[in-house]
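Predict structure. Input: COMM domain-containing protein, 218 residues.
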Amino acid sequence: MKVNKNLQDAIINLNSLSIPRTEIVIGRIFSKPGQLYKDLFTEDEIKKFQNNLHIAEQQLANIVNAFTFVLMHVVAERNLSQVEEVLAQNGMSQDHIEVFRQQWIQYGNEYSIRIREKPIAVQDVLHSFNWKISLQVDESRLPQKNVANFMNVDGKIEDANDLYSYDARNPATTFVFETKPSGESNKVEKFSIKFQKAQIQDLFENLESIQESLDKLI
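Output follows.
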């Protein structure tokens, strides 16, 4: 099981809760597989987490998301002890791990059945990713320097590279990307990134590996 910062933060926040509170949180996650924190807790409960337990709404959301991921891993791998080891290695207290274990013993079988009957849909799913890069090739209009300044006594140019400004010797191009969230056909967001010559070369040399990485997300 891969551990990222979100899971590490969730462990820290869960450790700060009392055992009874932890039982409630983990129990809610077991009760409604794949649901968001707002579907597991009432507004009053969320406010109590903020005011009494110093758990911000985003932190509560992260706990729910992180331990939903943990449970999905347990279901897929069928190896609770291995997951417990990972949680312990990342700072989760033995008391809190014991809560997780007992909840699994009580609700794990039912949770697994519900997962397999109806796969969980996460909030953001990458269904497809289409992209292309178009570079316009045109006559350079970047400034040239005075040729006479770079001639030696015989009238020859000492270094042809010196004829051009830094910008001309280090061309850059701007890539414009468009993103469109699934289900929102009218909402298109654009952003641009400026690449220098070396970055462009590196990008094109790695296009195949970039596409392979994107394909793995689908």
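Residues 99 and 186 are 46 Å apart (CA to CA).
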